[in-house]
Amino acid sequence: MAKVGYIFKKEPYEDFNEDKNWMLQFGCVNVVEEQKEHEKLRPKWKQLLSSLERGDELVVTKFSNAVRGSRELASLIELCRIKVVRIISVHDKIDTKNILFPDTKVSDVIEMFGSLPEECAALRNASSHIVQLQQDIIVSKKWNITNAEERAKMIVDMYKNGYSISEIHAISGFNSRSSVFRILNKYGVKLNRGRFSGPLGKRKNKKDNQENEENS
């Protein structure tokens, strides 16, 4: 059994250090920090959920900070029910073992559920706005790229920070997406998003497929 915390680092986040210290003092062996650039994918959150074992304790600052809506909250509750994982939401003052927050009432829980969609939407909008501002800055830097090495570094950095291949291609200056994949493969970047791990190869036409079947 282990205690583990999760914090999505929204901006602004004035209480970040206070929330993290609360988790550490509570006994969390690790506090997972999700960067604002990954608000949509939440790779660390997904990895954390998959690593939970029976009897573990999951601590979040607030449900709206961890999940992206009521559906994800329902899935989280079901997952923790099956794995017998205790959930603690610090600012919602909810403890599924009814130990930490004895004064929390049913009406408080219902209030949390009712306000969750609005709070999640506000967080997503704020994160999207910040990411867009960062993208605008990167776009402006495009015109300052003077050599291939700088462009390659920009492409690698953007992918590692959660940008899609389409977004990278749009400002890379390359004519095709395959050039973006070539740069990522050259620098050993593990591709972990989308349906494919690289550019599609030349597609065979139906005639070639029929000839292969006849020869096999």
Automatic annotation (TrEMBL):
Residues 3-128 form the Resolvase/invertase-type recombinase catalytic domain. SMART domains: Resolvase (SM00857). Signal peptide: none annotated. It holds the Pfam family Resolvase. One of its GO terms (molecular function) is DNA strand exchange activity. Coiled coil: none annotated. This is Resolvase/invertase-type recombinase catalytic domain-containing protein. It comes from Phocaeicola coprophilus DSM 18228 = JCM 13818.
